[in-house]
Design brief:
This protein is α/β, with parallel strands linked by helices. The protein has 2 domains: 41 residues; 214 residues, TIM Barrel (Alpha-Beta Barrel). The protein is built from 10 helices and 9 strands. Helix 5 runs parallel beside helix 10. The chain is globular, with a radius of gyration of 23 Å. The N and C termini lie far apart (54 Å). The N terminus is likely disordered. It binds zinc ion. The site of zinc ion has 5 residues, from strand 3. Zinc ion binds next to strand 3.
């Protein structure tokens, strides 16, 4: 009997704390909403945990926050068709990944500043021949320190298919660049994108040995002549359509991996591209949330 009474009391406590959980202050609601945006179903779990009211609840939440931050690093994985898919159900799938290739030539730093102002993450895929002077190296460092992810795009932008029979050269193109990047920013790239999207069996193997995730892209238009223009490029990137290059349908889909380059017109269009994508309800993915090879 005593046990039943105890159970009934504790049930009442749980129920009443459930009610109070619903009547949260607006501040808590705001933070819950932010969490929902980030990690989907996680807040439900943490609300349930909060019903278990105990004196160390503050401390526990602190630990939860830390765990949450850890888990946020791997919310998405790169799929077979190079798009970004949520690892767990409940994570926002309506995201796009921004990538800037052939960096940092002329416009990357300005592009990074534009993205930073918009609070939009991106991966900058860099080439060795753009980071072989102290000034260029300083630029790479600055882009990295602004919070952007640096990826490997080979040392000299070689078509790996053309050097398929030269394994030493392939290794050099990929590994020498990782060594150089590590010297400059203190860490090795975790993503690899082959120039023109052309990989060889060996380059795929080297990427894995170097603990880099392979990544091509879903769509990009800035390297086609009709889109070497601010307005035309913005329209194509935001709609996903490139009718002038035989893409009359939209390639903009949840998880789309967007290819852009260090180019004058792309630099000019970048802000409008981000704003246009967001207007359609797409979240710009933080590349730190992509699962890497550890
Ligand atoms: Zn390239």
């Amino acid at each position: 009997m005593r046990v039943i009474v105890m159970l009934a009391i504790s049930l009442l406590i749980v129920l009443s704390s459930c009610n109070s959980a619903e009547e949260k202050t607006s501040d808590e609601n705001v933070s819950t909403k932010q969490n929902q945006d980030k990690v989907g179903q996680e807040p439900k779990q943490s609300n349930e945990e909060k019903t278990d009211v105990s004196p160390d609840v503050e401390e526990k939440n602190g630990e939860d926050q830390k765990e949450l931050a850890e888990r946020q690093k791997s919310l998405y994985r790169v799929s077979e068709n190079w798009s970004l898919v949520p690892i767990e159900e409940g994570t926002n799938e309506k995201v796009v990944l921004l990538t800037i290739d052939d960096a940092p030539e002329k416009y990357s730093l300005e592009m990074a500043k534009t993205l930073k102002e918009l609070d939009a993450g991106a991966i900058f895929f860099v080439n060795g021949h753009f980071i072989d002077t102290p000034e260029e190296q300083e630029m790479l460092k600055e882009i990295h320190e602004m919070g952007f992810v640096i990826g490997n795009h080979t040392y000299s932008h070689v078509n790996l298919g053309a050097i398929e029979n030269n394994p030493d050269k392939q290794r050099e193109e990929i590994i020498k660049l990782n060594d150089l990047i590590e010297d400059i920013i203190g860490e090795r790239p975790k993503f690899f994108r082959a120039p023109h999207g052309v990989n060889t069996e060996l380059s795929k193997q080297i990427a894995i040995e170097e603990q880099m995730v392979l990544m091509n892209w879903s769509y990009g238009y800035d390297y086609f002549t009709p889109y070497m223009d601010k307005e035309k490029l913005t329209e194509a990137m935001v709609s996903g359509k490139g009718p002038e290059v035989d893409v009359p349908y939209s390639l903009l889909k949840p998880g789309a991996n967007l290819l852009m380059h260090d180019r004058e017109w792309t630099n000019a269009a970048l802000k409008d591209i981000v704003l246009g994508l967001r207007e359609q309800g797409y979240e710009v993915l933080d590349p730190h949330e992509i699962k890497t090879i550890e």
